């Protein structure tokens, strides 16, 4: 009589026991059993620690060949079909984007208006942040938008890899060495969580996100050109965390109006659109990874002009250190772990 194989699958924070398998069953049979328990289709499953001679086994490989111990725990990544459909389509609550060409310098005065400062104070008192990872002493702060900054949310795609901006994980690994990382999207928290899971950001082992901010942390302001718009005031973060300030914070967003309250801390990233056409050409995150390395030794970010970030050159005494730390990200394509 064949030996029964019992496997435990860890996925999305839960464990699922897979029974009624024998050694003569294949990896494909195992995936079908996982599908029945979790709802994740076999082609969506990425079984991270299931290896044969250091490589991922083919679906036809017999379980006996893998020599698994009873109760062996398999780490799985994969998304449900409804989650993929939700995260691949445009969100319902994303605000209309006003013409961003261009927010004029006259609107910089908005950052000091008392009515807006009062709104920020209310957000500091009332908005609750769910900490994912605690701030690290001595680290600067990087605040990242999501849509068109980290991925193309309007492209039709079946996997997070197809939606994801090239070199996303390499960029985040590099940035995490010097910066605490915050994700701030003008959508709902559920939407952010699903996207980060889809892209493999929330579960990556080589970097950690400090926390997410959603549309409820934003405030509305009145601009001379565009009337009422929603913006992301960094003062909400600075009011909650003493170690962050305008001196050590930088925000990437593809829409300049989002950092109207803090124009000196915002860097307008080139939007990543038409992913299916531009995946092989987009190198924005590689360049920005280098820029973050170059400026990390600046004592005060207020002295920088992020509008001309591509022309920035580190001071000579820092160039050797920066070059040593930055490494050559350009030699590797994006090693996405999203599925």
TrEMBL record:
Q: Which GO terms describe its molecular function?
A: metal ion binding; protein serine/threonine phosphatase activity
Q: Which GO terms describe its cellular component?
A: nucleus
Tree of life domain = Eukaryota
Q: Does the keyword Nucleus apply?
A: yes
Q: Residue spans with biased composition (Basic and acidic residues)?
A: 319-339
Q: Per the UniProt record, which EC number(s) apply here?
A: 3.1.3.16
Keywords in UniProt for this one? Hydrolase, Magnesium, Metal-binding, Nucleus, Protein phosphatase
Location of the Ubiquitin-like domain: 5-77
Start and end residues of each stretch annotated as Disordered = 307-339
Question: Has UniProt tagged this entry with the keyword Iron?
Answer: no
SUPFAM superfamilies of this UniProt entry?
A: HAD-like, Ubiquitin-like
InterPro entries, per this entry?
FCP1_dom (IPR004274), HAD-like_sf (IPR036412), HAD-SF_hydro_IIID (IPR011943), HAD_sf (IPR023214), Ubiquitin-like_dom (IPR000626), Ubiquitin-like_domsf (IPR029071), UBLCP1 (IPR051658)
GO terms under biological process: regulation of proteasome assembly
Protein's cellular compartments:
Nucleus
What is the name of this protein? Answer: Ubiquitin-like domain-containing CTD phosphatase 1
Catalytic EC class = hydrolase
Reactions mediated catalytically:
O-phospho-L-seryl-[protein] + H2O = L-seryl-[protein] + phosphate; O-phospho-L-threonyl-[protein] + H2O = L-threonyl-[protein] + phosphate
Residues annotated as domain FCP1 homology:
135-295
Q: Name one Pfam family in it.
A: ubiquitin
> What are the required cofactors?
Mg(2+)
């Amino acid at each position: 009589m064949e030996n029964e194989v019992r496997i435990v699958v860890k996925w999305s924070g839960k464990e699922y026991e897979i029974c009624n398998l024998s050694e003569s069953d294949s990896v494909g049979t195992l995936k079908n059993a996982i599908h029945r328990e979790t709802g994740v289709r076999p082609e969506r499953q990425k079984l991270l620690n299931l290896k044969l001679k250091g490589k991922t086994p083919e679906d036809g490989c017999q379980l006996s060949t893998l020599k698994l111990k009873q109760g062996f725990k398999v780490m799985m990544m994969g998304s449900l079909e409804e989650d993929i459909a939700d995260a691949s389509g445009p969100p319902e609550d994303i605000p209309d984007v006003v013409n961003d060409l261009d927010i004029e310098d006259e609107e910089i005065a908005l950052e000091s208006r008392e009515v807006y400062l009062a709104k920020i104070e209310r957000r500091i008192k009332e908005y609750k942040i769910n900490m994912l990872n605690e701030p690290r002493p001595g680290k600067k702060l990087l605040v990242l938008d999501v849509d068109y900054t980290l991925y193309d949310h309007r492209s039709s795609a079946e996997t997070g890899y197809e939606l994801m901006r090239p070199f996303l994980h390499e960029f985040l690994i590099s940035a995490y060495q010097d910066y605490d990382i915050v994700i701030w999207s003008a959508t709902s928290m559920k939407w952010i969580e699903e996207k980060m899971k889809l892209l493999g950001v929330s579960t990556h082992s080589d970097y950690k996100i400090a926390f997410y901010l959603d549309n409820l942390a934003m405030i509305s302001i009145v601009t001379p050109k565009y009337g009422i718009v929603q913006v992301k005031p960094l003062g909400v973060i600075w009011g909650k965390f003493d170690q962050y300030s305008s001196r050590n914070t930088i925000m990437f967003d593809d829409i300049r109006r989002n950092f109207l309250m803090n124009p000196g801390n915002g860097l307008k990233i080139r939007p990543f659109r038409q992913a299916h056409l531009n995946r092989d050409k987009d190198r924005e995150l590689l360049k920005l990874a280098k820029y973050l390395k170059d400026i990390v030794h600046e004592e005060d970010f207020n002295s920088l002009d992020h509008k001309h970030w591509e022309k920035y050159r580190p001071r000579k005494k820092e160039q050797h250190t920066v070059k040593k730390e930055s490494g050559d990200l350009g030699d590797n394509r994006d090693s996405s772990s999203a599925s």
